[in-house]
Amino acid sequence: MKKTSLIVMAFLFVSALFFSCQKQEEVYEDSGDEILLQVTEVAENITDAGSSLSKGNCNARWNGNEGIIVLLFGYGFNNEAFFTSTKKLLSEEFGLYSDGGIILPLRYPDDFRNRISNLYEIVNEQNVRGIIMMGAPERTHAALAKLQDDWEGQPAYSIFSFFPQDDILGEESTCNFVLEYARGTTDEATDGETELKIDEDAGEILCRSVNYIMSLPSPLKADSELIRHVQFIAGNKKVHRYTDSETGLQSVNHFVMEEN
User: Fold this and answer.
1) Tens of pLDDT along 113-151?
2) What is the Cα–Cα distance from 68 to 208, expressed in whole angstroms?
3) Coil, strand or helix: which one is 171?
């Protein structure tokens, strides 16, 4: 009798374990929807904070131990006035890396020894959570591609590109998304470079981007939902998918933002 009881108990234990594993697998299969829900909630929370963000209150909750955000100030965003004022804002809200915070501001060309390829070495020396680029100069995508070669097929962190002056196809292939004004709304400077119109919303977009990257459970995917996330980051600026004028094809991760 004892032997029979042991056999029955063993059978019940194995059965329970089997059904328990099945239940765990079902939860795992549904995790994609759960992650999407989490990301949507992050976006909604950032949107709700829009009024305070516009006043410079980004409500930071992180420190450098969770990874840092590398912020590249490229063409159109590297002038002294914008760089200084924006760095001050980000310092107050998130803290600079040099002070134990999460923002590592880099101004091109000064902090790159005049070569954007040095971005690879700079990033590799840090525990990076994400990269945000404003006015990325030519060949930035090559440095990003070199970084991604080290990822072994799995995205290591998010890369957001705003108003790049780099090759646009290269930017699309190396960034989660590219956001710019419609082509033709920029002015040509006398030295041949494009002079970008920096509006008062630039600081808010940066704050939203930092909050977004730090809140995401994983880098954004280039899918049909991507435009929703980019629209949250853009705030009150209307966002559209970029459409190639020659082919009429829409880009998956390249977006155009309307000017107010």
Assistant:
1) 999 999 999 999 999 999 999 999 999 999 999 999 999
2) 15
3) helix
